[in-house]
Structures are given as structure tokens and as C-alpha cells.
Amino acid sequence: MKNKVLFIVTAVVVFLLGMLASSIVNRKNEAKYKYVPKVELGENEPRNEEWGKNFPAEYQSYLQTADTSFASMQGGSAMRDVLHEDSRLVVLWAGYGFSKDYSQGRGHYYAIEDIHNTLRTGAPEGKGDGPMPATCWTCKSPDVPRLMNENGIAEFYSGKWADKGAEVVNPIGCADCHDSKTMKLTITRPALVEAFQEMGKDINQATHQEMRSLVCAQCHVEYYFDKKLPGKEGVPYLKFPWKNGMTAEAMEEYYDEIEFSDWTHQLSRAPMLKAQHPGYETYLTGVHADRGVSCADCHMPYKSEGGQKFTDHHIQSPLNNVANACQVCHREDAEKLKLNVYERQRKATENRLKLEDFLVKAHIEAKKAWDLGATEAQMKDILTDIRHAQWRWDYSAAAHGASFHSPVETARVMGGALTIIQEGRLKLARLLAELGHNAPVEMPDISTKEKAQEYIGLDVEKLKSEKEEFKKKLVPKWLEEAKNREADYSSKKVSMVN
Amino acid sequence: MKNKVLFIVTAVVVFLLGMLASSIVNRKNEAKYKYVPKVELGENEPRNEEWGKNFPAEYQSYLQTADTSFASMQGGSAMRDVLHEDSRLVVLWAGYGFSKDYSQGRGHYYAIEDIHNTLRTGAPEGKGDGPMPATCWTCKSPDVPRLMNENGIAEFYSGKWADKGAEVVNPIGCADCHDSKTMKLTITRPALVEAFQEMGKDINQATHQEMRSLVCAQCHVEYYFDKKLPGKEGVPYLKFPWKNGMTAEAMEEYYDEIEFSDWTHQLSRAPMLKAQHPGYETYLTGVHADRGVSCADCHMPYKSEGGQKFTDHHIQSPLNNVANACQVCHREDAEKLKLNVYERQRKATENRLKLEDFLVKAHIEAKKAWDLGATEAQMKDILTDIRHAQWRWDYSAAAHGASFHSPVETARVMGGALTIIQEGRLKLARLLAELGHNAPVEMPDISTKEKAQEYIGLDVEKLKSEKEEFKKKLVPKWLEEAKNREADYSSKKVSMVN
């Protein structure tokens, strides 16, 4: 009897051990499986779903950038209307596209949809039409490196935005940062490579950890369109203004040297600079960069699923993912860490809003001076002060996250703006007194986005209805054309592989 | 033969074991020895050398605060002449003692000598003479709690500084922070206890870790002299302006409410506030405080000598002691950690100097307005702007270490100052235009301390020679008198104990 029991127990134990062994083998297979490609990717394959067949874990996490239920990068609802939240911006950007529409971008998944939708791209009716150049597509899609490889870089930058609407259809994704053969991180945008060359650096020497920031720096940087490139005159060639350095002052000096301005301000007539989103430049001045932390470490931390460790491609605010993003290093309560971030943001915002008030006043005071007959000579220095102060403000404000990534540098740059605009407004006060107006200039009611847009004479309703037409007529055509082209491409590729 | 060798080896090993055992016992004794007092300390014992007999390790480390070969708190040479380094300060403090002399304090060991020497305390010829009240001794010596216990608090604050020269002679030391019976940390200055009461807090509830900052907060804070205290009218009673909070804005609001000013500015006639050294208040807004790090953790880290672990009483800049101060938490290279501090300081300094330029200009522009016949009513708001802006500047600048302890808050407060002084100077420009002067106001040459002091009409040579007289005649008398008193006290105490 005793032996029989022992026999049964042994049999059961052996059976369970067998199951355990099988499970371990399967796990190992699962881990290996990752590296066996299911499809062969073409060199310029722009479709994320094709890459996703080989890398389902990464792809499925990427797809979560479509989720807008969370806060996206900055907290708050998915698509904040920034002009609605802060109507001063309408005046600061009067005469420039951003005064029409400036909503916080959603996740990478929406890159194409959002650029179709924004009023800034206007409502072209077909090729050769619309306010924006083709260069505006550069950061929106893995179709961009495809087109550059197929046709050439300057050729890509040439023509109107609407010219390439049927070509650029896949939202930011795999091929923007990865080599389709080796899967290594790779730089696909020539502007970053060329900017490194201008600084005397070779981007090919970057370490893997540096690449985990540099792939982001292809787009999350300050840039401008150079229309004077020798041999490419007239083509709005995408360039980063890093030749003298990446600080607000170094870039300003560069822009001043080449006498570049993004637009002439509608009210003050100042030759303005628009800071895009110098996120990489400001990040570099902060303590996380100093400690060797990359963009991906916080915005794409490692994740584990089914025994596989992989990089979370749900690129998002670390505040949505404190456990994996922050608490790997910071052994503090998650709520406390978030409060630490909010406090830095709040303190930066306090002075940023005051600075905006001063800039708004300066533009309107300058307009008053022009109205009273000021001369170009009288206005020259004043307009330079406005240009420099607003550039510093925009550098601090537009670099999303700067007040956290680098709060001390951000405060330093805003302090600089406050000093410059003080001198500018003093000159304006004296000039206005000279022109017979020795009193504060009356300020218009710009307390809402609508009032501010009305003040600068924008017919937003018209822009919106034109945009609706564009979305109804041209966009479906683009997408249809792209679908046929891609189907064709797929069938060719399959025949090639087989 | 073999046995003989074994016997000898055993004997040697046993002998060495005996030595080891003896060494361990001695070590234990050494550790115990610390707690056996050699002398019995009187309740109000002010002499550090008496305490040192019971606590030689702590006392000997305290004595190192006499060492000026290192940088003291801020780096650089031992006693920096701050007015020499930044002559704008002479104008900012015109009409106030700090424009005469402002040198960086040395270690606690020199507290008495340095207050004798500074031109700010003048050259009294005896009791009842000189510019300063007795209250100015409050933070300088453990004789202060002794005198307060012996005679009363308001009695201590009464009279002139020179009245108590023979009583206050021992430099800041043991009895300022420790209870002579229990050796526990204790608050000896009533101002801190009273400030907590005004905020509705009980300082007796403070934890030991909080006390490791609060003993410092007895002195390293913002304070003022309240001459209107009910029942003590006319006595310059030491108070902390914390009733509404400890931020720059909360303290300013408090001072505005009670219409307090430290002095009337000599040039602008603005009712000024002098920030003393709100080090504790600014520290509280920084990340180290947020993480529960106390003043002592960095400025008095633990140290080990002869098997004893004790608190290093060589209070100094953590930058002189990175291994014990910073690297306990921060696993970074010491040089990198120092560079991180210097970078924060440099960025704060950049905007601070610009702000000082604006404040200097505002004072001189205001003087010009008075000279041109401005009325009190025309000047009122302008002077308030100057008061508020300079207060914020001083709050950021005078809190030694604020640009490191709390760089974001410091930048926020300086940004506030930049916005206020902008509005003030615009009002001034318009007023000056109205008074017939529509141009930048000519600035005097204040490029050196000497030129700036000459501009505000200070006869520094006279002050210096008077100070020499004072040091030659009165100081030796004070010290002689104190020596006799203390000898008398010692002999009485010894007879009491035996």
C-alpha cells in the first residue's frame, strides 16, 4: 500500500516536472520567436502595420499612442486648444499661421490626421495650391525617408505641401527611427546629420544611448527653412540653426547673422522668429541629460510582457507611467514626484504669463508708434528688442516640457527676455512721448481667443469652412491614391520575395 | 620538532587574539568615555571651551570654523568684500549701513570679532553711543541666551549695541543649539518660538531631524525689529515676518500691512525693505527640504574618528566636503557635483546682475524726478514698485545659497522683481517726460566701490579711522571686563560643584 502511494506521488511529481520543463522550453521559444521575421521588409517600407508583423509587442504598444483617454504629453485632455487657454498667443503670432490655430498635438499615431486638420495648412484645392511648402511634411511620416531615398532630398523639399498629399500618408512610426534590415536605431532625416556636420561633429559616432535621444532630435528641435542654400535657391531647405551652439542666445545670434525671420509681425512690424519645439536643445541643458538619461529612458521605458522585455513604444508623458519612467531611479512616492513636476511647471508659468503680457503690450505700443508717425530709424532698435525677447519667450514656451526638463535654464532664458523687453518698452515709452502720447497705450480686449482673433482681423469661420471642404474633397482623394499605390507596391514586393 | 613549532604558532596566535580583545575593549571604553562629563556645565554656560572639555571631538571640529584657508560658505577667499565685487550694491543700499561695508562673514568662530570690525556697527565711545541697538547681538553669541535668562528678553533687546559689549564675548557655539543638561538640540532664541506661535505651530512638536534645521533657523532667516510691540514700545524687538507665510510675497504682504520699512532710500526716497538672510525660508522651497534633508545633513555631516561617529561641527560649505555631504546620496563624481552647483549659481547670477542694473537705474531715475519737482502723489506708486522689486531681489540674493538650495524658486522670485521694476521704470519714464526730461537719465560712474561710495557721499576713510579708535580703545576694555567676570563665574561654579 505504502509503495503504491509513493509510486503515484512520484508519477504526479514527474508529470508536473515535465509540464514545467515544457513551459520553460516554450518560454525560450517565445523569446527566440521575436527575432524570426514573419515578413521581409522593403528598404523603404513606410507602413507601420507591416513592421508590426515582425514586432508585435513593439507595434501594439505603438498603437496605444492612438489612445487619447489619458493625458497625452502634458497632462489634461487629449487635444487642448492652446489659443483658447491663452489668447495672448493670438496677438504674439499675429500675421503668422499659429494665430489661426494652435492645438496640442496628439500621439504620433495622429501625425497625418492632425496636419490635415489644422487651419495652419490651409485648404488647398489641388497641387500647387495652399500656404505651406512640402517641407512641412518632413516630420510627419516614414513616407518622408522613402520619398527622399526615391527622389532626392532637395526634390522632397520642393513644391507645395499639397503636392505630396497622396505620397505622405503613414503616420510617424517604425521607419522613422529604425533601419529595416538591422533594426538598429538610425537617423533618417538629413537635417540632423547636416546640423552635426556644421558643428564639426559626426553623428555616426553617437553611442546607442545617445541614439535613444537623437532619433527624437530629428524632429523635436528648433529648425527653419533656408531658401538661400547655394545651388538650391528658392527651395525651403530644412535646417537646424546650431552652428554657433544650441542655447537661445547662440541660435538667435545665428539667425541675426543670416538676417532670417519667420515672418513680419502684423502689428509691430518686427522681424520675428518663431521657435518651433527646441525640446532636444533644452533637454541637453538639464540634469537628466547631464546624468546620461535619454529621451527613451523616460518616454519609452522598458516593459515586460509574456517573459519578453522590450521598449514600450507607447510614447507618452512619463507622468502617465511613473512606475516605469521615474521610479526606476527615484525612490519617492509617485504622487510626490508628480507634484514636484507640477511645481516646476507652475513656477515657470507664473513668469511666462507676465512676460507674454509685456510682449503683447510691446506689439500694441509699437503699432501705436507707427500710427503716430514713427520712422523706421526710430523703430529699428525697438523692433530688435521685441524680436529678441519674443524669441527667448518662445524658446522657453515652445520646447514642450522645458520647465521640467531644464527649469533653471528655462528661467534664465525667460529672465533674459524680461530684461530685453523692459529696455524695449522704455524706448517705446520715450518715443511715444516724443510723438505726443505720454500715457499708457490703451489695450484692446483680447480676453478670449475669438476676441483676439477678431482684433487682428482673422476670419476664422471662413478658414474653418474652407478646411471642411478640403477634408471632404481633397483628403479622400489623397488617401485613395495612396491605397492603390501601396497595394501595388505590396504585390510587387511579395513577388520579389517569393 | 613539529609539535614545538605548532606550540609556538599557537602561542603567537593566542597572544595576538589577546591584543585584539584588549583593543576591542579599549574601543568600547573610548566610545563610552564620550558620555562621562569631565566638567559639570552651568545652565547658561556660554564658553565653548568649557563644553569642549566634555565633547572634545565635536569641539575640535567646531574650532576648525576658524580655518579661513579654505573657501568659507561660498567658495573663494575667506573674507570677500562684496561691495568691492559688486559696486551696484552701494547704490542699492544708499542711506543704510550695508552701503558702508558688506563683507562675507567668516566662520562662526569669528562672529564676535567680525561684528566688532564691521563699519556697520560704527565706533561707539562707550555705553549709549553708536548707530546700532543691542538687538544686533542676538545672533552672535551663546552669551545671548545667558543674558536673556538672567535679565529677560525685552531687557536684552533694550539699549544700544555698545551697552552689552562687555557681556557678549563668546562666539556662536555650543549653548546656542544645545541644552547643557540633556545635550539635546534646543531653541534658545525666542524669535523663532514666537514666529511658530504666530503661524499657529508649536515648535516643541518638531522632530529631531527638523531640529537639525531649526537650530540654524534661529538666525539664518529673514527678521526685523518691531518697535511697536504692545507693552514694549520703543524696544527694537526681534521678530520674523512669517505670519502670512515664508514666501517673498507673503513676507512682503506682511511688511506692507504693518507699513514697515528698514530705511528710506537716500536717492529715490523709497521706503525700503532689507532682506537679511532668508536661508531657511528659501531652503524650505527646494528639493533637499522636500526630501527631508536637513541643514546639518550637508553642512555638518557625520564623521568618524578613533571609532567614534559624531556630527562634524566644522560648519562649512558642502563643496569643501563633497564626500561626506553630497556623495552619501549622490553617486556622481565630486567634480561633476560641484560643476552642477556652479552652473545653477552662474545662471541665477546672470539675471540677478541685470536686475541690479535696473534697480540702480530706478533709484537714480527717481532722484532725477524729485530733482525736477515731482510730487509725493506722482511718486507714490513708483516708490512702491522700487520697494517691492528690490525686496524680491534681496530675498533671492541675501539668502546665501538660495541659487543652489532652491534655484527654481529663486528664479521665480527674481522674475517677479523683473516684472515689477519694468512697470515702475515705465511710470518713471512717463513722469520724467512730463517733467520735461524725455531721455535716458544720465548714470553716474559707480564702477568701483570707492566711486559708488563717493557718489552717495559716504566718507569711508573717516568711518575707518573711527573704527580703528574703537578697536584700540573700547574693545580691549570689553574683553578685559568679560575675562574678569568669567574668571569670577568659574571660581564660583567650581566651589558650587565641589
From TrEMBL, chains A, B:
Its EC number is 1.7.2.2. Heme c 2 binds at C174, C177, H178, H313. Heme c 1 binds at C136, C139, K140. Its cofactor is Ca(2+); heme c. Heme c 3 binds at H108, C216, C219, H220. The keyword Signal applies. Transmembrane segments: none annotated. One of its GO terms (molecular function) is nitrite reductase (cytochrome, ammonia-forming) activity. It catalyses: 6 Fe(III)-[cytochrome c] + NH4(+) + 2 H2O = 6 Fe(II)-[cytochrome c] + nitrite + 8 H(+). The keyword Metal-binding applies. Heme c 5 binds at H288, C326, C329, H330. Belongs to the cytochrome c-552 family. Catalyzes the reduction of nitrite to ammonia, consuming six electrons in the process. This is Cytochrome c-552. The gene is nrfA.
